[in-house]
Design a protein that fits this description.
The protein has a domain of 38 residues. It is built from 1 helix and no strands. 0% of the residues are buried. InterPro entries: NapE_TorE, Nitrate_reductase_NapE.
Length: 64
């Protein structure tokens, strides 16, 4: 019994290098769309966490 692999072997099986244009498009997508959304989500999530913490335990400061 032999097993056959699907696809070619050797140097022609290596994945293609992305073009400079594809790399630039990926960078711009990350820099302009993804990371600003992630940053706003992290800051907003932290603010929500602090808000909920203060609703449950009260604002910081000396006790009255």
């Amino acid at each position: 019994m032999t097993t056959e692999t699907a696809g070619a072997s050797g140097p022609e099986a290596a994945p293609e290098k992305p073009s400079r244009r594809a790399e630039l498009l990926a960078f711009l997508t990350l820099a302009v769309l993804i990371w600003p959304i992630v940053a706003v989500g992290i800051v907003g999530g932290y603010g929500f966490l602090v808000w909920m913490f203060q609703i449950i335990l009260g604002p910081p400061g000396p006790p009255h």
